[in-house]
Amino acid sequence: MKKPKQNKTPEFVIFSEDGFFTGLANGGQPQWSMEIKNGKPFKDECKLRALQYVVGSKELLTEYIN
Q1: Whole-model pTM above 0.90?
Q2: pLDDT tens string 7-51
């Protein structure tokens, strides 16, 4: 039997002038990398809104990776 095709949700990474978001550390401080391969992939845009709340007025952008 063939498996039914699953719709793939496009993944994206979040970036700013500091680089690509890699995660939170040191009590919730955002960590950044200048290399896209280190960026943490997301599927849900609500994560973008939550991170925007954490970083305040810093502009965040997304880059779709697939």
Answers
A1: no
A2: 677 899 999 999 999 999 998 899 999 999 999 999 999 999 999
Question: What pLDDT does residue 40 have?
Answer: 94
> Which of 33, 26, 24 has the alpha carbon at shortest distance from 55?
24
Quote the radius of gyration of the chain (alpha carbons, Å). 14
With contact defined as beta carbons under 8 Å apart, do 47 and 11 qualify? no
- Tokens 């697939």 map to which residue? 66
- The encoded tokens of residue 23 equal 């995660």
Residues 6+ apart with CB under 8 A from 37: none
Tokens of 46: 């609500």
Sheet hosting strand 12-16, strand order edge to edge: 29-33, 19-25, 12-16, 61-64
